[in-house]
Amino acid sequence: MTAQAAERKALAAGLKRLNENMVTLAELSEYAIRRAVDSFTRLDAKAADEVFTLDREIYALQLEIERDCGDLIALFAPVAGDLRTITTSLKVTTDFDRVGRYAKDIAEMTLQFHGMEGSPAEELPGLPEMVEKTVAMVDRAAGAYVKRDADSVRDLATVDDEVDELHDRTFSEIVARMASGALPVEAGARCILVVRYLERIADHAVNIAERVVYMVTGERLPRIRAAERAHTGTRAGKRP
Q: Where does residue 161 rank: exposed (0-12), middle (13-18), buried (19+ CB within 10 A)?
């Protein structure tokens, strides 16, 4: 085996390891947000504790992936598709880590509701739909990365627009309930934070989708605001 062939084989092995770790990271992040949502909607302290463990695992794996990416670039000077895979993975790890961190934040809110009878989420009609759409966005983004399926997430920004609308509606509803006394101020403030965390998770799902499109095709989706997209009919990402 020539030196060049040996180097290529070692790079292929490194890329395979990187992909396996990225798949695990995607699965952990996806599971973390699901368990965080379960903890909040059911006021389940056990589920919240599980999210804390998942967050630590996600962070440790992110650091490992970052080291591996640095080593692959330093040792093999990859080009073209291999380089896109490595550099995209570096950025996507940050998004998955943020998903895990927001999941942890939601779990922490769960523990602060300790002693209450019934989750405040039960009294906010817009929240379950927001939860469903946000989790589905993370599912799609993670699946697109794992399967290298750019087409499946090209329109994810339009779903994010729907999540933003639900965020605004639910925020207004929480404030109205707080003002009327139907929802205690402390509980309402925590609900507002949870709604904000969900909205940010959706943004990170869009980031992942944009990066997957670039990784697979080399194409960078233009970032267009929702109002512009509605006017032009363009489907694209909106946030960095």
A: middle
What is the C-alpha to C-alpha distance for residues 64 and 72, in angstroms, rounded to an integer? 12
Q: What is the rounded CA–CA span in Å between residue 170 and residue 186?
A: 16
pTM for this model (two decimals): 0.85
**pLDDT mean over 98-124:** 84
Least confident of 21-35, 46-60, 118-132: 118-132
What are the Cα distances from residue 135, in Å, to 153, 156, 160, 230?
14, 12, 11, 24
**Continuous H helices in the chain:** 3-42, 45-76, 80-112, 126-147, 156-180, 185-217, 226-232
Q: Please state, in angstroms and rounded to a whole number, the distance separating the CA atoms of residues 199 and 107.
A: 16
User: Could you give the C-alpha distances from 142 to 7, 27, 31, 47, in angstroms and in order?
Assistant: 30, 7, 11, 22
**Among residues 104, 19, 15, which one has the least CA distance to residue 58?**
104
- What superfamily would CATH give domain 3-232? Phosphate transport system protein phou homolog 2; domain 2 (1.20.58.220)
Phi/psi zone of residue 149: left (φ > 0), alpha (ψ -120 to 50 degrees), beta?
beta
